[in-house]
Batch of 3 targets.
Target 1
Amino acid sequence: MSTDVRTRFAPSPTGYLHIGGARTALFSWLYARHTGGKFILRIEDTDAQRSSQELSEEILKAMQWLGLDWDEGPFYQSDNIELYKSYVNKLLEQGQAYWCECSPEDLKNIREQAQSEGRKPKYDGSCRKKGLGPGPGRVVRFAAPQGGLTSFEDLIKGHIAVDNDELDDLVLLRSDGMPTYNLTVVIDDAEMNITHVIRGDDHVNNTPKQIQIYQALGLDVPIFAHVPMILGSDKTRLSKRHGATSVMAYKDMGYLPEAMVNYLVRLSWSHGDQEIFTPEELIDLFDIKDVGRSAAVFNPEKFLWLNHHYIKNGDSKRLAALLKDFVEKQDYPVPDDVYLEQVVIDVRERTKTLADMIDFGEFYFREIEAPAELQLKFFTPELKEIMQMVVEKLFSVDFSDKEQVEQAFVSVLESFDIKFKKIAQPIRVALTGKTVSPGLFEIIMTLGKDTTLRRLRRALEYMKEV
RNA sequence: GUCCCCAUCGUCUAGCCUGGCCUAGGACACCGGCCUUUCACGCCGGCGACAGGGGUUCGAAUCCCCUUGGGGACGCCA
């Protein structure tokens, strides 16, 4: 027996790992790492209708992408059905559970009746005294304690107390023989010796019900920590309406996992004025005690800013490797690693995501032609001689030496006694097809002699023809 | 509707527990300026909040109560 911290993340594979779930997982993981405890992953797939193996795997992938590694699991609740049933039987034998024959329609009526009378729409317990046994269409319900108070000390919310009369005789075993969430979560957390149940705010109301089950079963009640929700910009529960909510959707949009971790951790948690954290710092600094009690609004702009921060400061070789996927997705020919890294270095200050790099740096990956209006505006005949000389000078220069390339321009500028400004935009348009781009010399060095000269000559041809 | 929870700039938050150092600090966004071959980056500056009302106190963003506002839960989902 040890008192080591054991936390868990228990998603249900009825959807992808979303922002909210990821943050909960992150907090659980951080707390385990911070305390030197264990982090367990458990898949809650007792809803056979809606759960799927594919979704389970997607969740695992998302966890891995975020770097949230687990020490035990993944365990699947569907592998433990007999275990849960044995507990149901125990409750039945103890008289703390009973068979119920009420149909879904009966239940609906009971609820509507209660609500219309201004009461909480809970099950009225009409089958409690019937002494029913198993039968088709029947479920097992928990005989919840009546009267009194159930309370607990939440690590985040503080003291929470609920009147037992508010609580339902909830279903433990469905008519199809599958156990339900409130039962399985209790049994597994107990069997897995979870010390700290860190989960979403939306489970606060379930907690007293679960505590009653722990008590009925004579199991130790863990410590609870309910983390506040993440809301959308209109302060309602975050959903697709607010934009992408799936973790992996952000990966596909060119976000970095460290940016997501850093962004999410700062929702309802902070450490003074610090905004940027390395994983090591987080493990060192994170504590549930510092998690706030109020909900946070997901702010895409700040997330983008953080992503840009990591794009700007990340290792360029790694970024180049990540960029490769995005190049392939566009069906562009994949350049070599050195070229890709140069692109990253050229564009990183002005692109906030990996996907941005592809858009903004399109001219690095494919042949481009400036729109007609830009050609007309910038490729003017008066620039003919100047451009001619730029091409000639560059032609005779060694491109492995940036110094020489810059010198070539200096000599052209001196010959015509003009400012660089005079030819910068025309050259930019010739090289990139746009008026906005990275620095000219960076582009030229990355593109290389052949491409640079080819594109400048094409502009020169235009100047001559006009 | 009933129950539970929450409440500092538009947003994320520091400060609140252990009242005075708060004419409330930082960050994102926004607006100016500087830098400059474009755009960015960077730097400098600006805008901007203690929900309201009562208490307690010499003194309240900080403690208490009420109101209001918001969120969540009320399922044979998790």
Target 2
Amino acid sequence: MPVQLLKIIKDQSEIPLPRHLQKEHLKHLQEGYDHTNKYIQGIVVLSYPLTKLGDGTDFFKIVLQDLDDLCSRISSINVLIHGKMAQDCAKVIRHGDTFIVAGFKVVESPTAREDGRHGCHLEVSEEAGSTIYYIDTKPRTTTASEATSIAVAPQYVYTPLNCLKDGTIVNLYGVVKFFKPPYVSKGTDYCSVVTLVDPSNVKLTCTLFNGNLDSLPKIYKIGDIVRFHRIKIRQYNGQMQGITGAGFASLTFDGTVGAPVVPRTSSRAYTFTDEEHKTIEELRVWAARNVSTSGPAVKLSSVQPMLFFDLTCQLVGKAKVDGSSFLLKVWDGTKCPYPSWKVPVEAKDLEGEKVLLRQLRHLSVDILVYDNHVQLATSLKIGSFLRIYSIHAKQASADNEAVSHIEFHLHGGTCYGRGIGILPENNLDVKELKAFLESVDLAGSQNMESMTSVELGGTSGDFTVLTDHQDLNNTELRTIMNSTAPQQYRIRAKLRTYKPQKLHQSVKLHCSKCNSLQEVPDGDDFDFILQDSAITAPNPELQNASWYDSVMWTAQDQKQRKIAIHFVRNDELLQQPEHTLLMIEGGTLKEFWKLTKRFKCVIPVKSTEDDLELLDLSAPFLLQGNVKYYGCKQCSAPRPIKNLRFIAAEEHPSWEPTEIAQVLGIELLQYVFIMKFTLVDGTGAINAYLFDYEKFFQIPASEILTNSFLQEKMQMTMNTLCPPGRKLGDLPWLECFIKSYNVRDATKHQVYYQIFDTTVAEDV
DNA sequence: TTAGGTTTAG
């Protein structure tokens, strides 16, 4: 009997094969060699229906996977079985069975280039003297016809991303780390670029083309999970690249742990087994720990100038502006906190429901899309739900405007995934957005808008400040003044006055260790320290250490100032500027500003005889973006600067100021708002201090000094809480949360009040 | 064919 069923055995080393047979590894298999006493063993991973060849002989093809060598391109091989043996095999052989064949013929595989399997295939038949052994892995209840039907649904093998080889066609799973939503390419197709990662921690960027938008993967978010079938792998610029080829198909899944596992696809038929369901769940768990997603979605109410953001919104109007730009009017139910621009278009050119456009005129925003995005934008349907990726919120001011406004651009090109994605109605984010849009009171928001911010919450009604303790009842100020401290209260009061009136003076630096407060040094202090430190030239012996690369040059000024920049390497390599930490010696204030715009972090240093060290702590020890970070002179105990290596050795150092401060022995000073509010409620008056890093104004204290927009926003908030020029009776009511506390010294005892757990809300 | 991630400069 040429096809034998071996008994089911757990330990495969015990397979009772004839003694003369020796196992041959696929990698040693070559055409023209003697394989007489050899056998090939593998798992059946794919089988095709039994067919008849042109001459009437039966033909059965299976694919064997060598489990000992999963990563090799030649780890799977086609086995072509002819004649009676084909019939016998088709009856009994199933996926997952262990298949052993001896007495085979090795022939060059004509399909190896295409299917990525072994360069040879095995030809097996009774005539050739072949013997097949197999281990049945599952209890067998199927009949021959059922076995055939199983064979029609092939079982796929998925290649981990670290095992991809040039010139193969593979199936794979991946977590989306980056993507460009489909856009119109310069050729005939739509294009989408997708970068995947998987638990092998290898990245693969795939370039996908299709003339049909629907055939490209329906990726909506970083962190989505995809399954690609029949993707071509090629080498490009020294890296593996995926590209669409014949038969490419994809499934996309929400990457959220616990979300329903529902594939998004345009394929009419696809396989999806319990095993694959499990794979998705596992990848979700892995991704949750290992792939950074884009963070919480930005709503229009939280846009900031100079921000690139993704917006999930509904299209309410559109208009052609000129050949290279197109207007989209969208809303998300929230209100942009800044005056936003309106792109002038003729009413007749504006497509959309007139009544709704008018109702939404203060809630919708204009997004001008350019160049390659125009064609897709033109085709969008009014009312559809969109996710627009990498919108630029740009601060701008016109000559005739007192305050600057914010503009929304979707610039040309597709860098950073810039583009427009159309979300289906069944998308979870869309469902949530729809429910929210339906809850928006259009009449109410219209009325609100017709008032100025000063009128908001004026005599007609209460202006409310949100507290975290809505369950508490209000306490009269008189009662509070007559009570002992410490206690906590919710109060309803009016803000009679506040100090400082010049709001920028309210920002201080606070040391949480010694509890000291100090003024924020101004730029001149820093400049002076820099000039002073530039007198000492960089020490040439400290250039290029094991953990940083250095460049040094001489400025073309009278002092022949020497400048050195030390680029800290991460994991032995230099990173992109926006992830890189620099140390600079001899730089001017202006040079620092320029470098902070381009690099993640900048640390001013000076040379000593044997090491680099930080400057005097009157200077910032770290600059990041617009923010200068200072250390407490009293509490810091500077440690060697080479401690930065500990962070640099991390795989993806985030260069958090707190972490940098810690390794450098710096006690980080935090920016805080310190204000004194005089609150009255008709029964009494108290002075309550505001001590706030970010929560109260929803503005980080660290950014207020360098951002005029945030300063304006803060001024507007204070004008709302305490409108200038109003009589006491006309001031708005506020609700907030305060606590009383005792301050005692040798001579006196006083009770103080502090506002906390309170956030200003524009409207409630 | 197209694009091949790493923000426009309106």
Target 3
Amino acid sequence: MSQQVRVRFAPSPTGYLHVGGARTALFNWLYARKTGGKFILRIEDTDVERSTQEAVDGLLRDMKWLGLTWDEGPEVDGPHGPYFQSQRLEIYKKYAEKLLQNGSAYPCFCSEEELEAKRQKAEEEHRSLHYDGTCRNLGKEEVEKRIAAGEPYVVRVRVPDKDYVLNDLVRGRVEWKSETLGDFIILRSSGMPVYNFCVVVDDADMQISHVVRAEEHLTNTHRQLIIYEALGITPPTFAHASLILGEDKTKLSKRHGATSVGQYALDGFLPEAMINFLALLGWNEGNDREIYSVEELKECFTLERISKSPGVFDHAKLTWMNGQHLRALSVENLLPMVEPVLKKEMPDEPRLQNPEILRKLVELIQIKMNKLNDAVEVAKSFLNASQPENEEAAAMISTDKSKDLFAALAEEFASCEWVREGYNAAIKAAGKTAGAKGKELFMPIRVKITGTCHGPDLVGILDVLGREEVLKRLRN
RNA sequence: GCCCCUUUCGUCUAGUGGCCCAGGACACAGCCCUUUCAAGGCUGCGACAGGGGUUCGAAUCCCCUAAGGGGCGCCA
């Protein structure tokens, strides 16, 4: 009962944070926040070839954007650092040495070429592809002699002849038979440790209590269990969530379109919506609820309710959900998010510089948006005066009646009080003069002013455009 | 080839032996609201992978098959 929850997200910086990784991070983070535990961020950069600083930077940036703050890790450090695997080499060596000492690991001098040849032969003969154990029982003197002679070697774990059982929080009982695994490498000939070994050493060293990760690691757990045992350390609790799939039901990847969290940020999605969507992809509370705030998620998240079956990433549903969160925002909160988007796309638009107009604009278009970026198109649709977009629209403003209407309306607008009640009355009066009402009254006005048959509330548009601009467009 | 995991509407899912001829959400269609488009409301469409058992009764338990995924690396 005394054990504190310590969970971690351990990405390798070989690319951007993708939605699958983000969900894994989220589950860990949620669990830590729910239980009052610690969330640790560890960078698994032992693959020097593929790891880059840009990827690390991007990872941290996207994690922050999502609001997935870490208690220990890069930038904040902590009592169990360093949090970059590339800086922990001494620790791995120490643990490997321990395994070599107690006999649960041994040096292996087989070359990569030899192993490849053996693997191929095994494949042809339909035998298991495992290491055949050539160096498993070399004499102590021979080992020392070959090492002294400078012969390169790797370190392998001596896999015990026994079955292993994992009691996974989401999968239940998973069992591996002894013969399904050959002695595997934990230290490369370069001295660099291998993933499965680093994970165990780090998780043990950082006192991780729960390992929450994706299903692709499920079978790795077999090896990791063996290493824990060899080290004499009690393994943490495991929870393996399933994978996120693309629309074609294969593992989500770049060719499925946007998969990086950074891209979603750029596309105008809200972090809160992203969190909501990701949380519900492979987890639910057991009821019909769809919309959650981050705070609410922190309250009710449980590892046990993570689902076993893989899920397809549904972009349409994410967009809908983003719209839900967007519309739930107060204008005060929405405005600072929309403002930069608008100003970036319309740097020369003077009305955006006026705080009062800007506020009215945001209020007007909020209901039309599903993403922050939608603001641009909606705003442009009426901010810029334009010709009728199609024949239907052109026909709407070319009738005699509509021309009478515009003339009458211009007159009314010129003198009416420029507030909502004022234009409403003016429109009504002009309609009476021209003999138009209902759709016949409003549609021509809309088209005359904006060029299109649809868009936000007409009165709201007048409000944003202002008397002068409206008159100019009416008289044009 | 071997090992492991998974399988309810197109998609995300509820469902842990009777409340289920299966509920919700997205998408789609229709209607309502409305000066338009949205938003919102209502309605509709639509699934227990297949086959065997167990049981009075099975989406739910067992077995087999199929399909999908993951792993079997000196990648992570």
